[in-house]
Write a structure and sequence with these properties.
By secondary structure, the chain is of the alpha/beta class. The protein is built from twelve helices and twelve strands. Helices cover 36% and strands 17% of the residues.
C-alpha cells in the first residue's frame, strides 16, 4: 500500500480507504461482527490506515464495532466519521448541518468509537438551509477544541464547497481539505467541476460506491440480468437507487473483457482506473462484506494501467459536458479568446 497526502492537510493516508458501512447488520446490508473483524484486520495487514464510517451506518453499530476493534491502534489510524443525516425522524433537530446537530452527533460518535478525537469529520450532505458561515464556524470550533483535526464535505455542489472554503480563508477558519463524492466508471458527472476544484483548492477526492453498487464487479451481464435489455430499472441500495441500463450492462461486460486481457478481476480494474484519475487525487472507498471481497479489492493497488487502457475505459463512458464547459473548450471560443496562440497555450488554473 502506498500513501498519499490528504490535500492541504499534510496527513498521510493509504491509497484505498476501508468503508465501514457494512459493519453491522441492522440495515440488512452488512456482515456479522466476526466477519467484520476479519475484514478490518486484513485491511490493516495490507498497510491500510484510512477508515471511514458515519453516525447513521447501521444506526450507529458501525461506529460501535470499530470502537471495539481499534483499541491501542488508534494513534496510527486515520479515522473519519460524518454527521448531517437524521438519526431520529421524530426530532427536527436530529439532522442538518447546524451547530446543535453537529455537537450532539460528534459527541455521540466519539463515545461509540471510544476515542476523544476524529482525524476527519465529514459534512455528510448539504442541507440547503444552514448558512455556510455558521457551518464553517461550528466545524472550526470543534477543531479548536481538539475533537476533530480536519474537515471534509460530501454530497454538495461544487459552488457550495468553493464558497465555504473562501469563507474559511477570509475568516481564519479551518477549510475543507477533502471531498467525498459518488464516482465510478459509470457515474462520472463530478469530472465536469469537482476534479478541477480539488486541484485548485488542494483537496483530495474520496470516491463512494466505486464499484457502482456491484455493477462493476463482473456479476452483472445479460445472462444474469436479462431485464436490462428492456431499457432500465432501479434496484434499492443503501444510498438510494442503482440504475441498471442496457448501456451500463454493456460497460460492465466490456470492463470484464478488458480485465480478462489484463489477468485481473473487473473490480480490481475499476478501482485501478479510479486511482489514476484526477492526477492521482482520488482514493476509492472499498466496502467489503467479507474478507474474500476485500482481498480481491486490495489487488487493485498492484495495477498500474497503461495510457491506452485508461483511454479505452474512458471511451466506454465519456461524459457529455454541458454549458459553459462546452463553450469554453470549443475551438471557436478558444480562438476568440487566445487567437493564433491558442495551440501554444497550456491549460492553467488555480485559485
Amino acid at each position: 500500500m502506498q500513501y498519499l497526502e490528504l490535500g492541504r492537510s499534510g496527513l498521510r493516508i493509504s491509497e484505498l480507504c476501508l468503508g465501514a458501512m457494512t459493519f453491522g447488520e441492522e440495515m440488512g446490508i452488512g456482515a456479522p461482527v466476526d466477519e467484520c473483524r476479519r475484514v478490518y484486520e486484513s485491511f490493516l495487514e495490507a498497510g491500510g490506515n484510512f477508515i471511514d464510517t458515519a453516525n447513521i451506518y447501521n444506526r450507529g453499530t458501525s461506529e460501535s464495532i470499530l470502537g471495539e476493534f481499534i483499541g491501542s491502534e488508534r494513534d496510527r489510524l486515520v479515522l473519519a466519521s460524518k454527521y448531517s443525516l437524521s438519526t431520529n425522524p421524530a426530532d427536527p433537530n436530529a439532522g442538518g448541518n447546524h451547530r446543535k446537530n453537529l455537537q450532539q452527533a460528534l459527541d455521540a460518535s466519539l463515545r461509540r468509537l471510544q476515542t476523544d478525537y476524529l482525524d476527519i469529520y465529514w459534512v455528510h450532505g448539504w442541507d440547503r438551509s444552514t448558512p455556510l458561515a455558521e457551518m464553517m464556524r461550528a466545524l472550526d470550533d470543534q477543531v479548536r477544541a481538539g475533537k476533530i483535526l480536519h474537515v471534509g464535505i460530501s454530497n454538495a455542489p461544487a459552488w457550495v464547497v468553493s464558497a465555504a472554503n473562501v469563507l474559511a480563508a477570509e475568516r481564519n477558519m479551518t477549510p475543507f481539505c477533502t471531498l467525498q463524492l459518488h464516482y465510478n466508471l459509470v457515474e462520472r458527472s463530478i469530472e465536469e467541476d469537482f476534479l478541477d476544484l480539488a486541484l485548485a483548492q488542494d483537496m483530495l477526492v474520496t470516491a463512494w460506491s466505486p464499484l457502482a453498487g456491484g455493477l462493476l464487479t463482473g456479476k452483472f451481464n445479460r445472462d444474469s440480468d436479462p431485464d436490462a435489455r428492456a431499457g432500465s430499472r432501479l434496484e434499492s441500495t443503501p444510498m438510494g437507487a442503482r440504475v441498471i441500463t442496457d448501456h451500463r450492462i454493456d460497460v460492465a461486460e466490456q470492463l470484464t473483457a478488458v480485465a480478462a486481457d489484463l489477468d485481473c478481476s473487473p473490480a480490481q480494474l475499476a478501482l485501478a482506473w479510479l486511482r489514476q484519475r484526477g492526477e492521482g487525487r482520488v482514493v476509492p472507498i472499498i466496502g467489503a462484506r467479507n474478507a474474500a471481497q476485500l482481498a480481491d479489492n486490495l489487488g487493485a493497488v498492484q495495477l498500474e494501467l497503461p495510457a491506452e487502457t485508461i483511454a479505452q475505459l474512458d471511451e466506454l463512458t465519456a461524459p457529455e459536458w454541458r454549458y459553459p464547459r462546452t463553450l469554453l473548450d470549443g475551438e471557436f471560443f478558444q480562438q476568440m479568446m487566445f487567437g493564433a496562440q491558442r495551440a501554444q497555450r497550456r491549460r492553467g488554473g488555480g485559485l
